[in-house]
Amino acid sequence: MEAEVQRVKQEFEEKLKKKKEKEKEEKSNDKDKDKDKKDDKDEKPEEKEKPDEVTTPDEEPRIFALKKSFYQQRIDKKRSAEIAKRNRERLQNPSLFPQVPKGLP
Length: 105
Description:
Elements: H1 2-43, H2 68-92
């Protein structure tokens, strides 16, 4: 039993070592890529980065006003959708259609 526990511990430690090595390789690869990107930026003319003035944390949340015409368009769309739904339901119900007279005149 103890031998099995030791074997499992060794396997676990080996997996950890492999994982750490992979992480180190990835970090070194990332650094190389960053260097390449920096070299590319140096070749291009540098543009001054302006701070984003639109999203300042001190700015109050914007309040949107719903214009009357847009509101009316939304209501009209809802109404027309309801009317179309009712019409489809009516057409699917055969009892609403007139029936042919059965008796002779």
